[in-house]
User: Fold this.
Amino acid sequence: MQIIMSIMTRDQFFTSFNEVIHTPSRFTVLSHVNPDGDAIGSSLAFSQMLQKLGHAVEVIVPNDFPDFLAWMPGASSIHVYDKDPDQCDSILKASDALFVLDFNHISRSGAIRNTLENLNIDKILIDHHRDADMSQFRCALSETEVSSTSELVAEIILHYGEQYLDDAIATNLLVGIVTDTGSFAHSIFHPETFSICAKLIEKAPSYNQIHQLVYDTFSENRLRLLGYSISNKMEILDEYATAIISLSKEELSQFDYQVGDTEGVVNYPLSMKKMRMSVLVTERQGVIRFSFRSKGSFSVHELAQKYFNGGGHTNAAGGTLNCSMDAALEKLHRILPEYKELLINK
Ligand SMILES: [Mn+2]
Assistant:
C-alpha cells in the first residue's frame, strides 16, 4: 500500500528533522542531474551546516556541473556520480540518511536512479518543485512559493541561529538564490526572500564579486552561441505569443559546446513585451531537451508534464523526448493550438 503523506508544516518538518540530525551520523546530500546554481549552492551550504553540527557529510550530483560554479566554496569536494560511480555507490550505501535537494522525482536522479531505488535508508526532501511524491520521504520541506531550495536551506540554518551562517555558507546560498531568480527578476513570492538575502550579504565577502563570478564568465564561444541562437534560430509564433529556439548537436559542436553554455538562452525571448512563452530545444547525448519559460499565469509546468516527460514550476520547467529534433519540434508545434487561449489571454 502506498502511503501518501500530505504536505508537512514547518513545525512537523523540524520535529522530524531534529530526530534525524540528533546523533552524529554519516549523511549524503544529493541533487539533480545537470546541476544548476541552486542545486550546487543549496547542497554545499546544507552540507556545511550539517558538518558544523558534527556530522560526516558528502555531496553527490549525478553528472558534472558547469565551470562557472567551480569556484564556489566546497565545490571541489563534490562527488560526480558518472565520473566515479563505484565510490559514489559506496558513499550512498554507508550513509545513515539521504538528503534530496532541489528535485523531488527519481527521474531527475540520472545515473544514480538504480542505486536510489535499492537504497533503504531515510530520505529527507528539501525542495521547491511542484508535485512531490511524499511517499518516498521520511520528512519533507517541500514548498513551491519560495525562490529556490537555497532559500529553504537558509530558513533551516536561520532556524538554528545566525551563528551557523559563515561566509562560505552565505556565498553558496546567494549563488542559489541569485541564479534561480535570474538576479531577482522572477520567482520572488514574498519579501522574506530579500530579508534573508540581506542577512546572507552581511556575511558574504562581496555580493558584487559573487555576481561577477557567476555571470561574467562566458567564453567567446558561449557568447557567440547566444548571438547565433537569437539572430539565426529564434522562431516567433505571434499567434501563440511564443518563441522557439532549437539547437542541434551539430550547431552546438560548431560553438564547441560546454556544459552550461545554453544556460539562460531561453530567457531572452521573454524580454520582448509581446512574448508569453519561450522554449529552448537542444539535442545532447542523443536526447532532446526542452527548457520552458513563461511570464504571468501561463503554466509551463502543466505543458511540460503533459507532453514532455517533465515539469518544474509555473514559469520555468524542463522536459525530454527520445526522438529526432524534427519530431520534437513537430510535436511542440502540434500541441500549441491547445494552449492558444491561455497564451494570448493576459
Ligand atoms: Mn531550484
About this structure: The CA atoms of residues 1 and 135 lie 10 Å apart. The pocket of manganese (II) ion is lined by residues 38, 102, 128, 148-149, 180 (CB under 6 Å). The radius of gyration is 20 Å. The domain at 10-215 is CATH 3.90.1640.10 (inorganic pyrophosphatase (n-terminal core)).
